[in-house]
What we know:
Order of helices and strands: HHHHHHHHHHHH
Oligomer: single chain
Strand content: under 5%
Helix content: over 70%
Amino acid sequence: xxxxxxSVTYADRSGxxxxxxxxxxxxxxxxxxxxxxxxxxxxxxEAERMQAERQPDxxxxxxxxxxxxxxxxxAASEHAAWQTICSGSRRPPEDIVAHTATLQGISxxxxxxxxxxxxxxxxxxxxxxxxxxxxxxxxYAMILEGGDDAFETARHELDAAVSGLRHSGNMDDLxxxxxxxxxxxxxxxxxxxxxxAQADLDEAWEIAERGPMRLFLADIHLHRxxxxxxxxxxxxxxxxxxxAAARKLIEQCGYGRRKEELExxxxxxxxxxx
Length: 274
């Protein structure tokens, strides 16, 4: 966060409009991952105002900057979706109206920025990240609201996202798509074997371990435990071992964004085991 904040200072000194905007999203993303969501949102909104001034015909953050903003906007609905999955409840959360509005708004944003990317030749990574945002929004809507249309949309968008990330060559972003698609595949009943949730999580692990990309490693441990803890055969060591590894990484990295999700999973899985 310190380096990101300093990058904003230097970008402002440079006077370069793109750097001033983009470095604010870098700082905002660091704040978000640290769990400082309100501060992150303030930075993102500031960056989007600069984007609208810089390119009035493209007033929304797009490409990687737009994906990062969407990641923050999706966070509350993502958390609610995980709570629903882990508890085994199909009862919608009390704030379902707010989640529905959020997910619809993010889908509209990503649909618009995807059109800009396709018309402007912005590259495979930008296209893939927009598909990923659309797929995530559809997945969370499917879990929180139900509906076959959202399921089909999520499958289409997430397959396009993973394929696009592969073809872009951005291996550091590919785990994002694999993690979300693993969640979808598990819900489809494709838990193990080829083209399964386990296959996606194992591929994400192979990529992240080489880095090591420790935030992705924490996410993979969490996904494993939350998706598979009720399964008769657990494909890895144990849910408890995955949660312990996730906690260690989250604490070492200051990955505050996942702290509440981790605590939810620990409580539910502990109750399941007792």
